[in-house]
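hey all, quick one before standup. I had two proteins in the batch that finished overnight and I want to keep them in one place so we stop losing track of which output belongs to which input. First protein below, input sequence then C-alpha cells straight from the run.
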Amino acid sequence: MRSLGVYALVLALGCGTAPPEEDPRSILPAEPTTVAVSADWFNDSVSFLDADTLVATDGTRDSALVETINLSPSGRLPLVLDATEDGRHAVVLLSPGVIAFVGDRVGIASEDVPEGGNAIVLLDLTTRQPVATVPTDDIPIMVAIDDPRQQVFVSFFGGAPPAMGSIGVYDLNSLREITRIEVAPFVEGLALNDAGTRGAVIGATAGLHLFDPDDPANTLSSTPLRLADDSSGVAFVAGTDRVVVANSVNPSNYVVVDATDLDNPAVVDEGAELDGVPYMVAAVPTRPEVVMPVTADRGIRLLHLDLSATPGRVLHDVQVDDIVTFPQAITVDPTGRYAFVGAAASRELIIFDLETGAVHRRTWLNELGPTSLAVAP
C-alpha cells in the first residue's frame, strides 16, 4: 500500500525576524491515501479509516479513524460491504446475518438482535454519505459488485423449506431492482469471477448453483451440486472459472469446483476435514490463492491456501486464541497483502498479513462489531 501523506505547514520567515509561532488549528489532517470502510454492525455505523495507518505495526482504530457515520435509525445493522473498482462507491448490507442460527456460539441471544431494518445502501466514498437506500423484506447476506455492467448482486437468506432464498440484481447507480431470482432455502454465499462470466451462489442445505451474470434468470443451474450437509461461502480463484466453496458441516472443509460448464460443474480438489466451522472464504486478487477463517471454541484458525496446482497447498495456517467470533465475512485488500476478519463478539478486527503470516488485532467500538471491512482500490 502507499504510505500516508500529510499536509506541511509552510512558515514564512521574515528577514531578521523570528519565525511566527505555529497555530495548531492551522495544521489540517490529510485525506487518507488509501480508504478503508468498516461495517460496525451493532454500533449502527460505518467507519471511514486510513488503511495505511490501520495496518501499520503500531496502528489502532483511533489513529486511523477519519469519520464514523450512522446510516439509518437505530436498530439497523451494517453487516457486510464491498467497494467498486473505481473506488468511488461502496455497497453496504444492513442485516442481522445468520446470527439467529449461530448466536449461541458467541453468546448473542436471538432476542437481543433488532428485528427489521434490512436494507441495501449505496455510499459515496468521496463525500462519505449515503446516496441511495433500498429497504428489503428478506435478510441480505452477501454482496458482489458487477463493475462492467454497473450492477449489484445480493443474496437473500429466505428461510426453512418451503421458504426460498433468492438473488437480487440492482442497478449500481440507483439501486433500482432489475430482477429477483428464487434459488433455494437458506441462501448464503455469493460471488462473481473476475471476467464477469460466471457467478456462484450457495443454498446452505441444497448446494452450489452457478449462473451467467449477463443473464442470471435464464442460466441459473436448476440442479445444485451438493457438497456437504451445510455449505456456506464461495469465492472464485482470481483469473479463473474455479470456485472455492467453504463447507461448514459434514464435512467441514473446502472444495474447489470447475465452473466452466454451468450445467456440469466438476469437483477438482477437496481439502481435509477441519476441526472447526468454515463459513466464508475470500479470493486474493491477482493470485491463485484464497483465505478462509475457521471458527473454533475460544479461537479462530486462519488458512491461506495456494490453489495454483492440485492438490492445493497451505501457505499459512495461523491459530488466533482467546477470541470469540463467528466471521460473517472476510475480505482482502486490492494489493493482496492483507485479509480482514471481524471478530464481532470480541469487538476486534483481525488483520492477517498474507506475506508474513503475522496477525494484528485492533480493538473496535463499544457494541458488537465490526463484521466487515473493505479497502477501496
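OK second protein, same deal, sequence then C-alpha cells:
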Amino acid sequence: MEHDLSKFLYPFEDNYFDWVESDHCFEHLPNPFAVMKEVHRISKNNAAVIIRVPHFSRGFTHAEHKAGFDVTFPYYFKKEIKGGYQGIEFTSPKSDCDGLLNLILKKRYFQHLSFILHLCWGKFLTSLPIFDPSYAHEFGAFGWVGLKKSNFGS
C-alpha cells in the first residue's frame, strides 16, 4: 500500500499498530506534529514508536528537508511541559543523542586521552537537555527516539 504521509487521515483504523517506525522521513514532511497526531491515532496503547531523523544542525542543509529536530522533540508530547504540548501523549523511555562528532571520527582523529575527554564532554552536553531543554538548541543532537503511546486519552 502507498500513501502520501502529508495527507490525513491515514487509511488505518484507530489503535491498529503495535509498532510504528520511521527512518529519515519526518524531516521531509511539512507538518511533523500533524503526523505524530496521526501516528498516535493509529497506534495501540503502549505501541512502540521509533523515529530516526538527522542531527538538527543538518536539518535544513538538504534541499528537501522541511524541518530540523533536536532532543526536545519528545517533550512536545508531555502534558507537564508548557509551551509546545501538542495535545497527545507519548512516553519517552529511550533516545540516542550525541552532541559532538561521530564516535568513529573521534577515535580516528583524537589521541586516546583526547578521545576520552571528547567522549565525556559529548555525554555531558547531551545530558543538559534533561535538566533544561533550552540547552538542546545549543548543544543537543537527535539520532533516534523510542516512544510509547500513553494509556491516557488522545
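Flagging for whoever picks this up: Residues 112-131 form the longest helix (20 residues). The helical segments are 32-42, 103-109, 112-131, 136-139.
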